[in-house]
């Protein structure tokens, strides 16, 4: 399992570019003159930041799992660590799936 697995789900590079664009919008002159639009952009920024954080967390854990699996192949006693990390990954993925299902973002509904 590699970090590309979760990168494909989250497309972190695209999310980071979107976040940069939102930051440019926020810093633009007159942005705050329309409070409703500013509030919506703020919500979008928050969703993107959460998506990035979730993707980065999954990538980190995936990389840790790769290391543990290599240690296991070398005969190290890391089975309990692997089980714990897999459990953490499963929980995070379940949480993310639920968030995506409940999200108001129709482009994310029904995807796994």
How would you describe what is shown here?
- The chain has helices at about 5-10, 10-25, 35-75, 80-100.
- The chain contains four helices and no strands.
- α1 (about 5-10) crosses α2 (about 10-25), α1 packs antiparallel against α3 (about 35-75) and α3 packs antiparallel against α4.
- Residues about 1-10 and about 105-110 have low confidence and may be disordered.
For the record, the CATH architecture stands as Up-down Bundle
Radius of gyration: 18 Å
Give the amount of beta strand, in percent.
under 5%
Sequence stretches where pLDDT stays below 50 over 5 or more residues = 1-8, 107-112
**What name goes with the CATH superfamily?**
Release factor
Mean pLDDT: 86
The biggest sheet, with number of strands, parallel, antiparallel or mixed sense and barrel status, is: none
* Percentage of residues in helical conformation: over 70%
Give helix and strand order, one letter per element, not per position. Answer: HHHH
Overall number of strands: 0
- Quickly give the structural class: mainly alpha
């Amino acid at each position: 399992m590699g970090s590309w697995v979760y990168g494909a789900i989250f497309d972190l590079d695209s999310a980071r570019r979107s976040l940069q664009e939102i930051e440019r919008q926020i810093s633009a002159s007159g942005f705050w003159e329309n409070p409703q639009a500013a509030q919506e952009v703020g919500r979008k920024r928050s969703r993107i930041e959460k998506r990035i954080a979730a993707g980065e967390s999954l990538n980190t854990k995936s990389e840790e799992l790769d290391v543990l699996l290599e240690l296991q192949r070398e005969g190290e006693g890391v089975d309990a660590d692997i089980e714990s990390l897999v459990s953490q990954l499963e929980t995070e993925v379940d949480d993310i799936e639920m968030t995506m299902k409940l999200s108001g973002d129709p482009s994310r509904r029904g995807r796994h």
